[in-house]
Amino acid sequence: MLERMLSFYIFVFVSFTAVVFQCDGAPVVYTITYQQYTTVQIGWTQQQVTQNIGSAGNLVSQTGTGNTAITIIKYTGSQSPLAVATFLFQGGYLFSKTQVGLDTTVYTITLAQYTAIEIRWTRDQATKLVGSAGCNASEAGTANTAMIIVQYKAAGTTFGIVTLGFVGGKIVSKSEIGFATTVSNKINLLQYNTIQIGWTQQQVTTLLGGSGTIVSQAGTQAAVTFLFLGGILSTKSQSGLDTGIYTMTYQQFTTIEIGWTRDQVTNVVGSAGCNGSEGGSGNTAVIVVRFTAAGAAFGNADLTFINGKLTAKTGIGYFLTISNKITLQQYNTIQLGWTQQQVTALLGGSGTLISQSGVQGSTSQTSIVLYTGGASSSASALITFQGGIVYSKTQANLDTGVYMITQQQFASLQIGWTRDQVTQFIGNAGNVASEAGTGNVAAVNVQYKVVGTVIGTVNLIFSGGKLYIKTGFGFK
Ligand SMILES: *[C@@H]1O[C@H](CO)[C@@H](O)[C@H](O)[C@H]1NC(C)=O
Ligand SMILES: *[C@@H]1O[C@H](CO)[C@@H](O)[C@H](O)[C@H]1NC(C)=O
């Protein structure tokens, strides 16, 4: 089961990687035709793939050793630099392949067809209904565990896409982006509040006077989403439908405590906030309540209540009004394991509380605190405390040093090398973006810029002092 989940995770990861690389636009080096792509079969060795395509492709990422080694290779379309093919090898054998833009045929699907398609249908059933087989965007696994993601263009939309997920030849998921904008079923706040978790889809449809639409819009800013599981409403969420103004000051945000009831929070803040989303019932009822951050242009405070008690609070945007600063030297001085008091004393301020969860004062309480860089407005550091102790630290743009790596060096790096070996090989220690844990479980993320590229970036993750994952993108 775990293996299956891992495989699916990797599969999704590769699909995602392909999208990222679409923006790359780097000069064409390793090319592939659509015909070559379709010829390559799941289960082939890396050598077979190289031989068939005529080049080894760009190494994007490599991790693990032996049977668990995972290698990701990328090619650019021979017709268009925006077309990309990505291959993922597990233990030396092709596990999944993904393409974007290589198949230039346009496969169209209408909203009525999309609605009619049912989970558990075969590919043939879907093809017959729609009139075309769609584009094989990603494929992984074989026989019973074969996964395939098929895409169609949503008819009557500019960028609309319908995605069908097949496992073992049957549809397991369907989703669409773009049709929703053409749907005209309206909902108002009163109707939204009337709809209760546990209602059947029929009850919802009857109340709203519209059928067959799960996503609905009212006005331009508001959006409502209902999620049905087994035909029963399991969650509802809205944004922009409730136009009331609920403001929370930063002081109120820091005062309210994990474990408080909704009434206690309402008493301190002076308003109940906006019910953003609701799911479950009784003991497992979850509700996310949103307030506007006072003094911030776009800030929010989101409070999560489970079974009526505050379990997490997250503030975004308050930092616009707070001026707690940190320098690179201070950041480097802070050590994992320091108390929050030590950090506050060093920096001369308690930073901006971004998020908090877990019981107040307990060892499970987690707080994320933001400090901003004095030198540049884009520089910042996030310190995560667990039970009042620094658990991890992350910085962005605080270290303005230039750390370069060549593509050749990246390709030569071996999984399992120590940090010192890597530093010596590359000639510099890189930008330490984040650190967490100590000893065997220590994780460090080091970043480099790639020589001769505009946006080329390499991320190295060390676990317990050894190179564990290497990832690169934006190569020439
Ligand atoms: C798409 O995938 C299906 C199922 O694996 C396969 O039968 C078909 O040949 C593929 N089509 C193309 C064009 O590769
Ligand atoms: C928001 O949620 C709470 C708790 O479920 C409920 O008591 C209240 O009536 C809701 N408010 C609105 C405006 O729907």
TrEMBL record:
InterPro entries: BamE-like (IPR037873), Beta-lactamas_inhib (IPR009099), BLIP_dom_sf (IPR024221). SUPFAM superfamilies: beta-lactamase-inhibitor protein, BLIP. Keywords: Signal. Pfam families: BLIP (PF07467). Residues 1-25 form the signal peptide. This is Uncharacterized protein.
